[in-house]
Amino acid sequence: MTVKVHDVSYDRFDTRVDKRGNLVLDKSAQVDLSLSDRRLVSIDVESGAVWDGLSVPWMFQWFLKKYDKMNALYNISGLIHDILYAHEGFGVFSRPECDDIFRGMLQLSGKWRIQAALAYISVGIFGASSWGEDEFGLKVKSRLKIKPNQIK
Fold this sequence. Notes:
Blueprint: E1 5-10, E2 15-17, E3 23-25, E4 29-35, E5 39-45, E6 50-51, H1 72-86, H2 95-108, H3 113-126, E7 145-148
Antiparallel strand pairs: 1-4, 2-3, 3-6, 4-5, 5-7
Helix pairs in contact: 1-2, 2-3
């Protein structure tokens, strides 16, 4: 089943780059995803969460950045995808559905369709080994919350 993201909202998303080039979330954040099947998905991320932005090899970063200081939603897309993978979709989303969410968030962040599609294809090919792996210890304050979307 294909999952489409209609909207993403978040209160604030303060990050910094650590010495290793990873992103660090300075304050706890809540990210809400409005999905096409009328579900609202909410993920509370603890402050101190660390992730590598988008896992883009350096030779392709001219086309798709590892992270973007001026585009919080772009950075959030990498974090949410990493969280979903680390927690195996919380038993709610399959790996392809997590990839669909990632692609949709990239498009909402302003990336071209071709950029989002290539990122989607890349995680589909190379992301399998990361499914269930929590390289950075990404924890969420509460498990994934899903409720009916009130927005029509």
